[in-house]
Structures are given as structure tokens and as C-alpha cells.
Amino acid sequence: QVQLVESGGGLVQAGGSLKVSCAVSGVTYNIRAMGWFRQAPGAEREFVAALSWTGSSTYYADSVKGRFTMSRDNVKNTVYLQMNSLKPEDTAVYYCAATYRPRNWVSSFEYSFWGQGTQVTVSS
């Protein structure tokens, strides 16, 4: 089992920056990738970014490409999502996820472990 705990959400003005974190613990040696997803009110959960556990590959949704950066601190066993140039449409609950599966990391169905989510609100 893998335990994930997000932190760092909050309220920020449009154009601002925010960094959310996800502390990873438990059976981590089988993890193949970490992902960030988000869900706005009344909307489906959508892919934001994914990072291979080795750190060699990253994937981003077109809507965040060039603005968001996903990274990992191997010592702290923490993954991050640095969000810059935030827009009101980025407002959502952001979820961290982990998968043991080797591919298709943009799909939420591939992830078995989820954090509780952290709210990010961008005001206009």
C-alpha cells in the first residue's frame, strides 16, 4: 500500500504562483509513476501531470504545459507541482496519485493510490 498526503493548496490571485506537495510513504519500491489530477465542481477529474518514478519522463496536459512543473525530491519522498501564471480555470481540488502500472499514466484509471486532495482557488 501507498499513502499520499497533499499539502500547500490555497487562494491565489490570477497570474500568481502556488506549489503543492505530496508526501509519499508505504510500499514505494513498486511505484512506476506519480500523477497529479484535478477536479473542479461539477466536472470530471482530469489529468494534470505525471512523472515517472525514476524522474526520466514527465507528461503534462496541454492546458498546463509551460505553466506547471512536476518534480520529485528523492530524499524527502515528496513530489511537487509548481504552478505559475495561474488562471481562474485552474481552480479545483488537486489530487496526488501513485501507480504500479507501467504505462498510460495520463488516465486516472491506471492509478490505485490517491491522496485526500488539496483545494486550489484562483481569483480573478
Topology:
Layout: E1 2-7, E2 10-13, E3 18-26, E4 33-39, E5 46-52, E6 58-60, E7 68-73, E8 78-83, E9 92-99, E10 113-114, E11 118-123
Parallel strand pairs: 2-11
Antiparallel strand pairs: 1-3, 3-8, 4-5, 4-9, 5-6, 7-8, 9-10, 9-11
Q: Can you offer a commentary on this structure?
A:
- By secondary structure, this protein is mainly beta.
- It has strands at residues 2-7, 10-13, 18-26, 33-39, 46-52, 58-60, 68-73, 78-83, 92-99, 113-114, 118-123.
- Strands 2, 4, 5, 6, 9, 10 and 11 form a seven-stranded mixed sheet that branches.
- The radius of gyration is 13 Å and the shape is globular.
- The mean pLDDT is 96.
Largest sheet: 7 strands, mixed
Average per-residue pLDDT, rounded, comes to: 96
Spatial extent as radius of gyration? 13 Å
Structural class computed from helices and strand pairing: mainly beta
Q: List the secondary-structure elements in sequence, H or E.
A: EEEEEEEEEEE
The stretches of 5 or more residues where confidence is low (pLDDT under 50) are none
The separation of the N and C termini measures 40 Å
Give the overall shape: globular
| Counted beta strands | 11
Separate helix tally: 0
